[in-house]
Model the fold of this input.
Amino acid sequence: MPGKVHVTTTINGESVEFLCEPRQTILEVLRDQLDLTGTKEGCSNGNCGACSILVNGEVIDSCLMMGVEAEGQEITTIEGVASADGLHPLQQKFLEHAALQCGICTPGFIVAAKALLDQESDPSEERIRLYLAGNLCRCTGYDKIVRAVQDAASEMAE
Amino acid sequence: MNAFDYAAPQSVDEAISLLSAGNGNIGMLAGGTDLIAQLKEGRKIDLMIDLKQIPEATALSFDEDSGLSIGAATPCSKIYSYDVVQSRYPALVDCTSLIGSIQIQNRGTVGGNFCNASPAADTPPAVIVLGGTCRIAGPNGTREVAAEDFFTGPGQSVLQSGEFLVSIQVPTPAANSGAFFLRFIPRNEMDIAVANAAASVVLDSDKTTIQEARVAIGAVAPTPLLIADAGAALVGKAVDDEDAIEAACAASRAAARPISDMRGTIEQRIHLSGVLTRRAIQGAIQRAKES
Done:
């Protein structure tokens, strides 16, 4: 049985160390070892985006990244999106627009949308829809999500 | 997922040593978008070798003399965001920017797309028409294989035990040249090609006559195909020679030997081979005129 690997990484701005088996995905480490259960497991094969996290500011599916790969990286999960002052504008707008029903896809959508708005302050509706194509929602029909992201972008631009 | 060891070698030589010491049951990790999904589906390995600490495997660089070097572990989003790729290799933007979602593009690599060797892979046709080569490291040193010769069957390549793909080299585009890639999918996003095609052309200085041309098609045979007859049909012909373009399309249709599956039928894929060849050639000519 291969031994566990010691990993030092940064999660939501804090230095974190953990031991993991090479076969554990970073999604499993986050949820099962670090109790960061905001990141959801959906399809577990890179189709649905429910497990989206940011690695060095870029959105990825955490089900398709190994825990050992986190060494030296900067990771942001949904738990790191709000600030001490309150909700992130994306979170606030998702609430105001009722852009969620069951909520399983929501952390992934917000993390992915944050990656977009961190890079582009005024994305078009088409750009938002293309960017979020890797996040699936079976409840809302997407329109409310897209409007929430547009509204958050407008507010953040002010 | 069954248990395995993990190693992140710092150099090509160290990776080769690990490969020779292993029992052959090794998974090479770049972006993991194929490998990790396969491990979840039951593929068993004893050792995972992460390529991302190897400088040659992560480098993305351009030199006017030697061309573009794409480290095998360079994610698609790095490639299509690279200014040189945007200005000089738009066909590489075409293919790398439509693979999977943003999440997948931030992890998945051209090297992995080659080594996974799906017949429907989207990057090989573009790399093939651009004259790209695969730089392979092994116990006896490094060898170069033309991109069109890399694939031997579905999921199969020329990689031998103990070897791995280090990088893909793409020559500097000639003056007055252009290249274009496209695919057919029934959706707008997040799909696998029913068929795809790429073309490259070099025009004369007046930009009226085709001097060189290459055409490649994918998802219509066990491997991506370089269609030499399609390229030959265009050489020496005017850019608006409809008969020549139709001859190239006919060559693609003749070379296609697709299967019918959930994504498309044999008849549809043969038809698409011609349609996409025409559009790829027209796109390549347009870019060459604008170059």
